[in-house]
Every structure is written in C-alpha cells, then in structure tokens.
Amino acid sequence: MEYKGYVGKVEFDDEANIFHGEVINLRDVITFEGETVEELRQAFHESVDDYLEFCADRGEDPEKPYSGKFVVRVGPELHKSIVIEARKRGKSLNTWVSEALSRAIEEDDTLQKHAP
C-alpha cells in the first residue's frame, strides 16, 4: 500500500481475524489495522494524515520517506573494482552503483513473478 509517499506493509493475523500494518519507509512508527481491506486502507490513510498533522502541530518537518542518499560500506578491493568498472563505462560511481542496484531489483522482481 502507498499513500502520500509512505509505504505500508500488511500482514493478516489469523487468530484475531484482522489485518495490521506498519509504514516501512520511516524510522518513526506508524501503524494501522482493519478487519476488511477497505477498513485497512482507510486506517492507513488516517494514520499517515494523523502523523503529518502531529508533526505540523509540533512545528516539525515530518520525516521524509527517503532522501535518495545513503552510505554503503564495502571492503577496499570491492571499492576499487566498482570504481574501475564505472570508469570503464565512462560513468560516475554514483551512476554505476544506482544502475547496478536498479538491475538487481528488476531481476529480483522477475524472479518473484516466476516463483512457484
């Protein structure tokens, strides 16, 4: 589920007969639940809106889902190999790594779609 850039992961509790979810692209905790898909969706939207309102009331900027920047630590040999590969292709390190990660996600999605 996605709403206003926030992504919710949903699970079903068979014993309680209820869906429950959590926003997964923040450090802050936003949860929601419902007995039907419609209730779940409405609760998700309300929880995100409540979070945004809470932040506004406190005069704080809400945590943004992602900035587009992250630090990855690798060993020196891998770092060297990545830089060499990027330069061979006339690309910056950031561009090469971004493209490699995109390919990995696409491959994973393809594998998931064809899994039994």
If you had to describe this structure to a student in words, what would you say it looks like?
- This protein has three helices and four strands.
- It is an alpha+beta fold.
- It has two domains: 2-58; 76-114.
- A four-stranded antiparallel β-sheet has the order 1-2-3-4, with helices on one face.
- A hairpin with a 4-residue loop joins β2 (6-13) and β3.
- The two termini are 24 Å apart.
- The relative contact order is 0.09.
Instruction: Give the helices and strands as they follow along the chain.
Output: EEEEHHH
Rounded to an integer in angstroms, the radius of gyration calculated over CA atoms is 20 Å
| Cα separation of the termini | 24 Å
Strand content: 15-25%
- What is the typical, i.e. mean, pLDDT? 92
Briefly summarize what is shown.
This protein has 116 residues and is α+β, with helices and mostly antiparallel strands. The protein contains 3 helices and 4 strands; from the N terminus they run ββββααα.
Topology diagram in text:
Layout: E1 2-3, E2 6-13, E3 18-23, E4 31-34, H1 37-58, H2 76-88, H3 93-114
Antiparallel strand pairs: 1-2, 2-3, 3-4
Q: Main attributes?
A:
116 residues, alpha+beta, 4-stranded antiparallel β-sheet, 3 helices, 17% strand
